[in-house]
Amino acid sequence: MVLKGINLTLNKGEDLIILGRSGSGKSVTIKCLVGLVQADKGNIKIFDQEITNLKYDELNNLRVRIGFMFQNGALYDSMSVRQNLKFTLKHHTRDLSEEAIETEIIEALESVGLKESIDKMPAELSGGMQKRIALARALIIKPEIILYDEPTSGLDTITSREISELILDVQKKYKTSSIIITHDMACAKITGNRILILKDGEFIAEGTYTELEKSKDEWVRSFFT
Amino acid sequence: MGLVLTIQSRPTLLKFGAESWLPSMVSLSLIREIAPVITALICAGKIASGIGAELGSMKVTEQIDAMEVSAINPYKYLVVTRIVATTCMLPILVFYADFIGILGGFIGYKIHGDITLQLYFSEMIEHVEFLDVFPATIKTFFFGFFIGVIGCYKGFNATNGTASVGVAANEAVVLASLSIFILDMLAAQITDLLV
Known about the structure:
The complex is a heterodimer of chains A (225) and B (195).
Chain A: E1 15-20, H1 26-33, E2 45-46, E3 49-50, H2 56-63, E4 66-69, H3 81-90, H4 98-111, H5 127-139, E5 145-149, H6 157-174, E6 177-182, H7 185-191, E7 194-199, E8 202-207, H8 209-213, H9 218-221
Parallel strand pairs in A: 1-6, 1-7, 4-5, 5-6
Antiparallel strand pairs in A: 2-3, 7-8
Chain B: H1 2-15, H2 22-60, H3 63-69, H4 74-112, H5 117-127, H6 130-156, H7 163-194
């Protein structure tokens, strides 16, 4: 059993951080929210709709309102950056012209500062660039919620900060709500309004960065030292 | 295969004074069994492993999950397309293999004997019937279908880790090859019952 009964609420316009050690169930939590992992029991409500018993098409109607940035980007490696974004966009907005699609693609890439990479293949991009493109792919469908799975993992300190600041910019520009799974404290400090700490499948603490830094629980404080 | 079969069979048929049956014997063997099975086995090795490895790689790098969360049905986009492709293309490949095999048989016959291409094909066509070609063609659709299904199944079920991609490819080949033998056996039984 990975998660032992968790309660999670995401408010509109909020950036919620889920902190925890590796293997604590962070990724499983957000994968449950988009139906990639089926919960054994309990309720999951997205946009006031219970998702655990939804049919595939009904679940997909919700998924188009949620963006997901995977830990390693998960770019389609047989497609260029342009094709990655076009593929996602075309499946959501079938009545857009080619010119409109191209405009959307360029706008999404400009949001992440990588317009010049439009015709490159994912293998030609660095790890940080791949994550930016993955974020652009999540943004292009104009989601209301974005889920980030370890957005800064595997990156150096400077690039991690850039990604964290990009996440903040995206939230301000697109007015999205987000859940960020991370064990990068710098990222949590830059991006989060509220932090939940996950230990052994349970949330054991909740608060802002400043509040949790002064927590009476030694294990919680250990994240911030 | 046609060339080898002709060269290998000729001495035996010569003993029985049945050398003239060589074109039809070779062509029937090729059309009914050798071309479909050999072609399918080669495709199982190349295509099933390729599909298994490609989809397995997509699975472990979360590309398939990325499609799912983008509300794109990965089964429609990745699986159905591949299965349709393998199902449609294998019979075409088998026709090509039949043609090359029969041509090889002619070359094999020509090495030791004197026969024109026209006569060789006439001898061949005289004894090849619709019921020789039709069941052989139908089973190649099933071969292609199973190659596609098995490759996709193994790829989609690759667990996390790059080692599992290799395992998926390997298992796809083995299972696809085995399924071809089983399907061929079933096809032979069914054809025997119906004809």
